[in-house]
């Protein structure tokens, strides 16, 4: 009688074991997926895998946008990480990865925000030139200063990379943003084309995904400017590429296009750009 009972119970035990095995397999899969999704991913268009934790060291490979990587070691002093990408190991700049460690603290409104304004060029760097030799650096500064005054009135913490005709390195400009954990970094520039009068209009550039919403908000805010809208594009500029924070570079017209330049040099146009930036930031931080 006992043997018969044991025989009848055997299929039930087998099914229980099978269910437990299935649950174990599912748990392993979930753990692996969770581990994969927690790995940092590349937010730049591509990043260089290097032999040492500095931008001068030899490039081993380029890792494309959205690739997830396995972190082996973190150097929180230099903010470079030793990582594994497939079979290759090397160092990568951590600020070019999407990871909670390097997200800026969100501001719920503009008065809580830290905003870095960067008037392009200055000092011995004139920037591009108009057809009659006027320098780009002369016009980026007053636009940034107008934005500065408007945003200061909102009680925001505003930092500007230069306040006069002085030379400021690209690294110093970028560090202002990274070290102050800026919620927004905006670099002000004017464009030029290879052929005079060849191109016209304004454009917003970004490099990392964390600047998508900011770039689109500014592009929308500029819709009332009297110049052609060239839209939002990817810009592989140092101040964007090496920035850990949401960063954009705006080109507010073409210096070597006489029609654009008439607007560029006018106080009314500069003020309109500043007003649009301030209003766009108001909406961005809502």
Automatic annotation (TrEMBL):
<keyword id="KW-0812">Transmembrane</keyword>
<dbReference type="InterPro" id="IPR002508">
    <property type="entry name" value="MurNAc-LAA_cat"/>
</dbReference>
<keyword id="KW-0378">Hydrolase</keyword>
<keyword id="KW-1133">Transmembrane helix</keyword>
<keyword id="KW-0472">Membrane</keyword>
<dbReference type="GO" id="GO:0071555">
    <property type="term" value="P:cell wall organization"/>
</dbReference>
<dbReference type="GO" id="GO:0030288">
    <property type="term" value="C:outer membrane-bounded periplasmic space"/>
</dbReference>
<protein>
    <submittedName>
        <fullName>Cell wall amidase lytH</fullName>
    </submittedName>
</protein>
<dbReference type="InterPro" id="IPR050695">
    <property type="entry name" value="N-acetylmuramoyl_amidase_3"/>
</dbReference>
<keyword id="KW-0961">Cell wall biogenesis/degradation</keyword>
<feature type="domain" description="SH3b">
    <location>
        <begin position="37"/>
        <end position="101"/>
    </location>
</feature>
<feature type="transmembrane region" description="Helical">
    <location>
        <begin position="12"/>
        <end position="31"/>
    </location>
</feature>
<dbReference type="GO" id="GO:0008745">
    <property type="term" value="F:N-acetylmuramoyl-L-alanine amidase activity"/>
</dbReference>
<dbReference type="Pfam" id="PF01520">
    <property type="entry name" value="Amidase_3"/>
</dbReference>
<dbReference type="Pfam" id="PF08239">
    <property type="entry name" value="SH3_3"/>
</dbReference>
<dbReference type="InterPro" id="IPR003646">
    <property type="entry name" value="SH3-like_bac-type"/>
</dbReference>
<dbReference type="GO" id="GO:0009253">
    <property type="term" value="P:peptidoglycan catabolic process"/>
</dbReference>
